[in-house]
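Deviations from the work plan: none for this task. Representative record:
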Amino acid sequence: MIKVLLYEDNPQLREGLTMLISGSEGFDVLAGFKNCNNVVEEVEAFNPDVILMDIDMPGVNGIEGLKRIRAGNTTVKILMLTVFDDNKNVFQAISNGANGYILKKTPPGKLLEYIAEAQTGGAPMTASIATQVLKMFSSMNNEKGEDYHLSDREKQVLQLLVDGFSYKMIASDMFIAIDTVRSHIKKIYEKLHVNSKSEAVAKAFKDRIV
Amino acid sequence: MIKVLLYEDNPQLREGLTMLISGSEGFDVLAGFKNCNNVVEEVEAFNPDVILMDIDMPGVNGIEGLKRIRAGNTTVKILMLTVFDDNKNVFQAISNGANGYILKKTPPGKLLEYIAEAQTGGAPMTASIATQVLKMFSSMNNEKGEDYHLSDREKQVLQLLVDGFSYKMIASDMFIAIDTVRSHIKKIYEKLHVNSKSEAVAKAFKDRIV
DNA sequence: AAAACGCTCACATTATCATGTGGTTGTTTG
DNA sequence: CAAACAACCACATGATAATGTGAGCGTTTT
């Protein structure tokens, strides 16, 4: 029996969901609330397996509720429920430890399937949401910048610069003369098209060279 | 009719998949290949809707194949297929524009469903993969670092340092004396627990202060 | 009202960096 | 084989950064 806790401000939808879920074999809605004002206490009291959490609620909304729950409970499964698949909320929800993100227009059969999936450690997502997540992910990691063709030795020097080493320290660390360090750094500046240590360090991060 | 192109080195599995997919209503396998050596030409020649791409293949593997296709074609849907749900490959695949990532143990019925889902713009993922993706996502954005309590002025100075400004430039940019810049920077170093400009710049990036 | 803090400025010394010019090896590649 | 490049080292000079000590002024917090 999967124990479900429900957060949804619309009374009709809350009723409907309760009937649907509790009326199904193996599912039980412990309680339903119209906002997250006392979410921490409620979750602790009912100890559910899965929480269905609407995002748009008056008072403490779903994202804030999610944060509050996760502050003290990292095991209960939380499924975010929303009418919109807008970027910001998806990002927020996932960053704060939601286990899934589904649209309200999800057909009843699918919804039960998703709840079960969440309970067993899956990450149910409506197709449009999953697509968004992948897009976000790839956009974050695709700005991998150009290849500046730094040699191995140059990369090594740059790495040490980033770590705050002085030329002298780099020289002794790499067992080379300080003048060699200088010439490497000069090369690095040329290749990165920068004119100072700070810019080189900044660029190393921006373009994920280190 | 969804046109499918297949890349899979195991001849039996390739045959099996071809029969399964082509034998189903609305699906057709245009061709199957045992590696990605000529993937770009093949994709261009057959113009499929969906590509099923095995990851572990001799010669040019699936990830590399994915990259090659995406270099010139961002519309064809690519479903990665693998036996392992290991972190690195998932990450690589998604970062390089895969539309979905499913395990080979996926039951036939589900597989067809996934292909159809990919074709209509969805992002089919095996549950375990979806969970991994969410984990990666939240771990990436949760290291938001401590708050170092930098004052507005200090943040401003740090920002300019990151941009490669010298003390002199910062002074004239902020209309303050160079000695004031110095004292700000000294404060910044103390608050960030660093001892050099480079480390401060590095930390500014790592902890997303700028 | 005293303490704490942010912001400002000054002066001085040493360490480090940026830049230039020049050179020797050894490997890779057209 | 010659050219290109990576990696190494040297000497020199001016610019910049790091560090220390000290201080005035205004606002916020206790």
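Strands of chain B lie at 2-7, 27-33, 50-54, 77-82, 100-103.
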